[in-house]
Amino acid sequence: MKLQLLAALLVVVTFSGSAQTIRRLDGSALTVAEASAFARKTLADKNVTGAELAVVNNGRIVWSEAFGLRHKNPDLPMTPDTNTWAASLTKSVFATYVMTLVERGEFNLDTPLAKQLPQPLDRYEPSRETATEIVKDPRWPTVTPRMLLSHSSGLANFAYIEPDKKMHLRFDPGTRFLYSGEGMILLQFVIEQQKHAPLDELMQNAFFGPLGMKQTGMIYRHDFDANLADRFNADGSFHSQTHRFPARASGNMASSVNDLAAFTTALFDGKILKPKTLREILTPQIKLREVHQFQFGADALATGPEGPAVGLAYGLGWGLLTKTKFGPAFFKEGHGDGAQNYMICFERSKSCMILLTNSDNGEFAFRPLLEHILGDTVTPWEWECYTESCITDARKQ
């Protein structure tokens, strides 16, 4: 049976409360039936194997729905509670956890990492091999947690992409933007050393347990098996299962759209952080003018008009839009093999849209879904590489 037909047939939906309409950012309304029909067709047209979508209005979940398959042969449907690899959405949830420690006075964002460890980084396992060069850099003692959370430390995305497979500071810390998963892992390491506990345990106790996020974890658990999403390539073929281990702050979290919607509503309700701390998270640390989020080689410093037009910036673990016609917003994307995800929240209306997919084709559907269902016309599509030309070009690299 063709995927398009399966996407039309296999739909699981839940609604929060009695809401039957979605309030878009411009104030217009869309019925959940209209949203469902549009999403079903768009996802089928873009050949997305499975997807979970949710919308939050005024800080409350008004719609969540799932489409397509979480598993093939036998064919099993996605649900809004399907455990799906969240990829780099992990970074923002982790950053929020870090800020709970800051709020309680248990962690300092501006004390250099080198001073927060009792011995040099290269003396620890397993960091020793990749850290041997960074500790020799005279700029290393200036690197702070704030820089790591705002992707301005100078570290590359991961050490393994460096020619010698070791960590290096590519520029003076705090002066430029360079997206770095390595930075999040490094910050995780420092916190685990201080707390004498693994990150999966720390975040389970801080968020996932108290908020009832039963389908969320930093590592794979067997209790996810009953509703777990496989991941699929662009041609619809099986890529892999999601059994992430050990916990990595850069991108190992798996979750569901209902759990992530619960997380955002708790964030708006002040159940996770005090308003002052949330405001610090959403305060720009560095302005972004790059054409694309990931730029390499000769294009590393290329700039364009899209970022300045919406006040694109990075806060503490979250991307920011500081000047849109709908007010400020915070967002995060999650890229991974067979898993493409995005979430964005607008502060003034407390409106969010969360998109989880288990398909390499997921990003092709993001712009039409966000524009039509939420009315989000301000996400920097080219910077995010959510245009068809950018996605196609990126696959060739």
Structure described in brief:
The protein is α+β, with helices and mostly antiparallel strands. The protein contains 14 helices and 16 strands.
Describe the structure.
The longest helix has 15 residues, at 89-103. The chain has two domains: 3-93 and 215-396, Beta-lactamase (3-Layer(aba) Sandwich); 100-195, no CATH class. 31% of the residues lie in helices and 18% in strands. It contains 14 helices and 16 strands. With 397 residues, the protein is of the alpha+beta class.
Write the layout of secondary structure elements.
Elements: H1 3-9, E1 11-14, E2 21-23, E3 29-31, H2 32-45, E4 50-57, E5 60-71, E6 76-77, E7 84-85, H3 89-103, H4 113-116, H5 128-131, H6 145-149, H7 181-195, H8 199-208, E8 231-232, E9 238-240, E10 254-255, H9 257-268, H10 275-281, E11 286-287, H11 306-310, E12 312-314, E13 319-321, E14 329-336, E15 339-346, E16 351-357, H12 362-374, H13 381-384, H14 388-396
Antiparallel strand pairs: 1-5, 2-3, 4-5, 4-16, 5-6, 7-10, 8-9, 11-12, 12-13, 13-14, 14-15, 15-16
